[in-house]
């Protein structure tokens, strides 16, 4: 499976050659499981019991499936859709939050037959 890696510092703006390189790749489908950060409360005072109960609650585990656009030491970037001239929203997940990342590929390199566009089932 191809591996997309970073050529530069993820905190600096990306050069157009790097953008062209990433756009030129086929983006693999991945399954990412990760732990999300949470915050609760506002600028005012909060009930201590409610805040301690919140602090003791486990973090939520999130499961994201999508197209892996880019990955580097700091994060992975995933989108849900890619068209010829547009893509869907991009989600950047910090590496430290990821509990698993799996490439979703058929085991025997076979691809199922697509369904016809007229809505009828393939036989």
Could you explain how this protein is built, in words?
The chain has helices at residues 16-23, 48-56; strands spanning 29-35, 61-71, 75-79, 90-94, 98-103. It has 123 residues and is of the alpha+beta class. It has two helices and five strands, in the order αβαββββ. It has a domain at 20-37 and 50-103.
Overall pLDDT level: 85
Largest sheet: 5 strands, antiparallel
- Based on Cα principal axes, name the global outline: elongated
**Strand order, sheet with most strands:** 4-3-2-1-5
Q: What structural class should be given to the helix and strand makeup?
A: alpha+beta
Low-confidence stretches: 4-8
How much beta, percentage-wise?
A: 25-35%
Please report the distance between the alpha carbons of the first and last residues.
31 Å
What is the C-alpha radius of gyration, as a whole number of Å? 20 Å
Order of helices and strands: HEHEEEE
> Please, how many helices?
2
Quaternary state, please? single chain
* Strand tally: 5
- What is the share of helical residues? 10-25%
């Amino acid at each position: 499976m191809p591996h997309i890696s970073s050529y530069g510092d993820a905190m600096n703006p990306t050069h157009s050659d790097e953008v062209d390189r990433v756009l030129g790749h086929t983006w693999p489908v991945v399954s990412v499981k990760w732990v999300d950060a949470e915050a609760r409360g506002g600028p005012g005072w909060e009930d201590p019991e409610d805040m301690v109960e919140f602090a003791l609650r486990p973090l939520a585990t999130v499961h994201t499936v999508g197209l892996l656009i880019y990955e580097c030491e700091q994060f992975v970037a995933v989108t849900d859709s890619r068209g010829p001239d547009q893509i869907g929203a991009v989600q950047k997940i910090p590496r430290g939050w990821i509990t698993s990342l799996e490439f979703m590929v058929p085991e025997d390199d076979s691809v199922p037959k697509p369904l016809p566009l007229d809505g009828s089932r393939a036989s």
